[in-house]
Design a protein that fits this description.
two-stranded parallel sheet, 64 residues, PIN-like_prokaryotic, single chain
Length: 64
């Protein structure tokens, strides 16, 4: 499987459509640059608690 470098918008939209679990099925590894990780972290703080926990759990499964 190919590797991919992720950007904020695709990760955000995949999460919002409950399709984030497609990434490990499509790619061998998902590389998230530090700037993207920072943007995602900023987005997480605007979410309600349960959604924030879900995003953080999923983010922990990606290669940061």
């Amino acid at each position: 499987m190919p590797n991919v470098i992720a950007d904020t918008s695709p990760i955000q939209y995949l999460y919002q459509t409950n399709l984030l679990d497609l990434l490990p099925q499509l790619y061998g590894s998902v590389i998230v640059p530090q700037a993207v990780a920072n943007e995602l972290a900023a987005l997480v703080f605007r979410l309600d608690y349960s959604t924030r926990m879900a995003v953080l759990k999923l983010a922990g499964e990606l290669s940061w």
